[in-house]
Amino acid sequence: MAKRVVFLGAGTGGTMAANRLAREMSEEIQRNELEIILLGDTDQHVYQPGFLYIALDREIPEKYKRSQQQLIVPGVQFVVDSVKEIQAQQRTIITKKGHRIPYDFLVVATGSVPNLDSIPGFRQDANSFYTLSEALRLREKIQSFKGGKVVMIVGVPHKCPVAPLEFMFMLDDSLRQAGKREDAELVYTYPIGRLHSLVPVAEWAEKEFEKRNIKGETFFNVESIDPANHTVFTLEGEEVKYDLLIGIPPHEGAPVIRNSGLGDAEGWLPTDPKTLKLKGNEHIYVLGDATDLPISKAGSTAHYQSEVVARNLIHELRGEPPTTLYNGKVFCFIESGLEEATHITFDYRTPPQPAKATTMTHMFKLAFNEMYWLSLRGLI
């Protein structure tokens, strides 16, 4: 009987890992010794980092969409269905369409979702760029902005931790190009005692903010928002007025994780930091945003983890021990404006250090936006 590997989630991590496994084990698939199933809840694949550019009117939505079927390699069976429950003890998943799918190995790559209702008033008046509809709404607000106080509030955790900084730098440049910067006050807030969770990034951002006259406020934890009076109330007792509110919503794990009794209260899965296996279960791997690992929830994280998961699955399916370990590697571009960018790379042992921002790095970032579709197929 053929062995079966099921991938839950057809985002960056799930698609990359499934494609890598199918490419390396094509002979086993052709001999009907292996079956690979990839489940996704939509037939469209969206490049989520593109939402940042859409919100700032730098790109159109169509550029960041592809048919999911066109992105998978031969040997991967793509099924459009949502997962209702993971029955870990029975090695079976139950889909919302009522299908029971047993597995030999399961890869959970269900990502994270923004919670727009975690803060009272957020959905009504805070403008985000973490979904396409929110990005388009924010684009309209920026286009009609005449001047005033722009406040960014940041909920944690959230996908792509450097994205809020990128947005502020790019907004600053956009307003300067439009001749509106002198009429705008830009305020960036963060919930802890520095401007970013990573100390080197926070120190770099503080210097950049000073150059650009962007005000940074720390220990700023939002309790509620009053849409009628355009006011943010914080747990620290502050009341801050705004004309335009940019909100980074807190993220949580996919509902199926909590429904299956596998994760913590926020839906994150307890994951071994090196093997990427679900703690206490030898038949389930976890990658990308779904993990509870203390590293960035970012596309590059899922990319590097997908390589580890695919290699270890190959070992296990061939009766070998899974010896490939994840070292916590993350690489992130950081747009520092409309024409320049920097980057950081780090792992469990090596802290990040932002490089000097250059136009060339910005061009590399734009180039990767185009090459993303190739990386999904495991070609780069």
From TrEMBL:
Q: Which residue numbers delimit the FAD/NAD(P)-binding domain?
A: 4-295
The record, for SUPFAM superfamilies, names: FAD/NAD(P)-binding domain
Fetch the Gene3D superfamilies from UniProt.
FAD/NAD(P)-binding domain
Give the coiled coil ranges: none
Q: Identify the Pfam families for this entry.
A: Pyr_redox_2
Q: Which InterPro entries match?
A: FAD/NAD-bd_sf, FAD/NAD-binding_dom, SQRD
This protein is called what? Answer: NAD(P)/FAD-dependent oxidoreductase
- Organism of origin is Fodinisporobacter ferrooxydans
